[in-house]
Automatic annotation (TrEMBL):
<dbReference type="Pfam" id="PF09180">
    <property type="entry name" value="ProRS-C_1"/>
</dbReference>
<keyword id="KW-0436">Ligase</keyword>
<keyword id="KW-0648">Protein biosynthesis</keyword>
<dbReference type="InterPro" id="IPR002314">
    <property type="entry name" value="aa-tRNA-synt_IIb"/>
</dbReference>
<dbReference type="GO" id="GO:0006433">
    <property type="term" value="P:prolyl-tRNA aminoacylation"/>
</dbReference>
<dbReference type="InterPro" id="IPR016061">
    <property type="entry name" value="Pro-tRNA_ligase_II_C"/>
</dbReference>
<keyword id="KW-0030">Aminoacyl-tRNA synthetase</keyword>
<dbReference type="InterPro" id="IPR017449">
    <property type="entry name" value="Pro-tRNA_synth_II"/>
</dbReference>
<dbReference type="Pfam" id="PF03129">
    <property type="entry name" value="HGTP_anticodon"/>
</dbReference>
<dbReference type="Pfam" id="PF00587">
    <property type="entry name" value="tRNA-synt_2b"/>
</dbReference>
<dbReference type="GO" id="GO:0017101">
    <property type="term" value="C:aminoacyl-tRNA synthetase multienzyme complex"/>
</dbReference>
<protein>
    <recommendedName>
        <fullName>proline--tRNA ligase</fullName>
        <ecNumber>6.1.1.15</ecNumber>
    </recommendedName>
</protein>
<keyword id="KW-0067">ATP-binding</keyword>
<dbReference type="InterPro" id="IPR004499">
    <property type="entry name" value="Pro-tRNA-ligase_IIa_arc-type"/>
</dbReference>
<dbReference type="GO" id="GO:0005524">
    <property type="term" value="F:ATP binding"/>
</dbReference>
<dbReference type="GO" id="GO:0004827">
    <property type="term" value="F:proline-tRNA ligase activity"/>
</dbReference>
<keyword id="KW-0547">Nucleotide-binding</keyword>
Length: 496
């Protein structure tokens, strides 16, 4: 049977490789251009991240989950022109209902502000109503379908909004670095790249070494009072005076999963970080001629039971329709972080049974076991681990895999980071598809000029973010593009 490995290598045709890997286990295409739906593996990864994020939100005490309508009437959509202008190309309109035309067309909301803030003005009346937050709207359609988790909040002061914004940004960092093993840069978006209608935007940015492109991983936006004034979200403060709230919004989406695939996948297929892998360990039966197959199956089942009871997500593969080599390759393509192989030799050497937890129905074999064979997906390393501490050693291996995946990804990213100070250096580095750090005067017109001067078939240069952790900027440093005094260091490059 065809294993459906990617038909090309990751470094030779990244786009084709990526779509083939996604198509195998992650998504299924729908019969509308640009639309797809997530398969169970994708949903399982998304749910793991949701559980983490939802729990962290609830620790902030005031967060509540809400569900809002998908459809928006034109009057609500058009109320905030500056905001909608940035999303106009994404808006889809519904004009018919079965056979009749709608009297008034309705839009599929491009973001949640258009619906939410009409109701904010009803809910927020006094200072005791603040802070006010809601998150977790249902997934919604723009030009394409995807899942996302979105939050909105209202505060009495800008300082409170600023503080929460950075808290959320840190949670986004944790999702990428601690769960997906993907290194990020936390930073500010430029005035040109900020959220439409907002005061300022922060983001976590990822760089894909194989393509030389940045990815905006997630955003946390300070909306200021712009939307509050438009939608009349006012409250009466402690002094009895009417005041306008300060607002934030934030979101991350299933883009996280795409980034994970791009960063970690290889020519065999997926490589899943243990923390988000729905299946962390697969235990494979390796039968052969004249072997006691049932003993092997029982050993596999007992091993999986012990791992699962310890909280490790594990399954056995007892199928005999394919060769062990075929099964190894199949599970490698699925990205399972660790596999355990159990065959006749393991049983003869009593390598897997002792020290495990058995039920009354389990048949126990020899008691002089020493080792069990494990194989890592991230680097292919095979290791025989002590049978007496199987669970502890598997947990340690999964932690090592998680950390190694992060370190390898970080090393690859750092190899692409290049600091430049002049236009000539910038152009050379840009053509080499690097993650460019350059001193910048922080002027919109200069950014637009850089985009215009670098426009080409593979995309123009743009600001990705100005890192929150700013390197030292020596006095007298000039902007690489304009020659004016530089105000900050900023990452530049192509982006998705």
């Amino acid at each position: 049977m065809n294993l459906r490995r990617p038909s090309c290598k990751k470094n030779e045709n990244f786009s084709k490789w990526y779509f083939e890997v996604c198509k195998r286990d992650m998504i299924e295409y729908f019969n509308i251009s640009g639309c797809y739906f997530p398969r169970p593996l994708t949903m399982a990864i998304w749910e793991i991240m949701q559980i983490f994020f939802d729990a962290e939100m609830k620790k902030m005490k005031v967060v509540k989950n809400w569900d809002f309508p998908l459809f928006v009437p034109p009057g609500v959509l058009e109320k905030e022109n500056e905001h909608i202008e940035g999303f106009a190309p994404e808006v889809g309109w519904v004009t018919k209902s079965i056979k009749s035309d709608l009297e008034v067309p309705i839009a599929t909301r491009p973001t949640s502000e258009t619906v939410l803030y009409t109701y904010f003005s009803k809910w927020v009346k006094g200072y005791r109503d603040l802070p006010w937050e809601c998150n977790n709207p249902t997934p919604f359609i723009r030009s394409r379908e995807f899942l996302w988790q979105e939050g909105h909040s209202a505060f009495a002061t800008k300082a409170e909004a600023d503080e929460e914004l950075l808290q959320i940004l840190e949670l986004f960092r944790r999702i990428y670095e601690e769960f997906l093993a993907v290194p990020v840069v936390k930073g500010w978006k430029s005035e040109h790249e900020k959220f439409a209608g907002g005061l300022y935007t922060t983001s976590v940015e990822i760089f894909i070494p194989n393509t030389g492109r940045g990815v905006q991983g997630a955003t946390s936006n300070c909306l200021g009072q712009n939307f509050a004034k438009t939608y009349e979200i006012n409250y009466v403060d402690e002094k009895g005076e009417t005041a306008t709230v300060w607002q934030n919004s934030w979101t991350y989406s299933t883009r996280t999963i795409g980034v994970m695939i791009m960063i970690h996948g290889d020519d065999k297929g997926l490589i899943l970080p243990p923390k988000v892998a729905p299946l962390q360990v697969v235990v494979i039966a390796v039968p052969c001629k004249n072997a006691n197959i049932q003993r092997i199956y029982d050993a596999c089942t007992a091993t999986v039971s012990a791992l699962c009871e310890a909280g490790i997500r594990a399954e056995e593969d007892l199928g005999d329709e394919y060769t062990p080599g075929w099964k190894y390759s199949d599970w490698e393509m699925k990205g399972v972080p660790l596999r355990i192989e159990i065959g006749p030799r393991d049983l003869e050497n009593d390598q897997v049974m002792k020290g495990l937890v058995f039920t009354e129905k389990t048949v126990m074999f020899g008691l002089n076991m020493e080792l069990v064979r494990t194989v890592r997906r991230d680097n292919g390393v095979k290791e025989d681990i002590p049978r007496g501490s199987l669970v502890e050693n598997v947990k340690e291996l999964l932690e090592k895999i998680q950390q190694n995946m992060y370190e390898v990804a970080k090393q690859k990213r750092e190899a692409c980071v290049q600091e430049v100070k002049t236009w000539d250096e910038f152009i050379k580095s840009f053509n080499e598809k690097n993650f460019i750090l350059a001193p910048w005067c922080d002027e919109v017109e200069v950014e637009r000029d850089v985009q215009a001067r670098t426009k080409g078939e593979t995309g123009a240069a743009k600001t990705l973010c100005s890192p929150l952790d700013q390197p030292e900027l020596p006095e007298g440093t000039l902007c690489f593009a304009s020659g004016k005094p530089a105000k900050k260091w900023t990452y530049w490059g192509r982006s998705y």
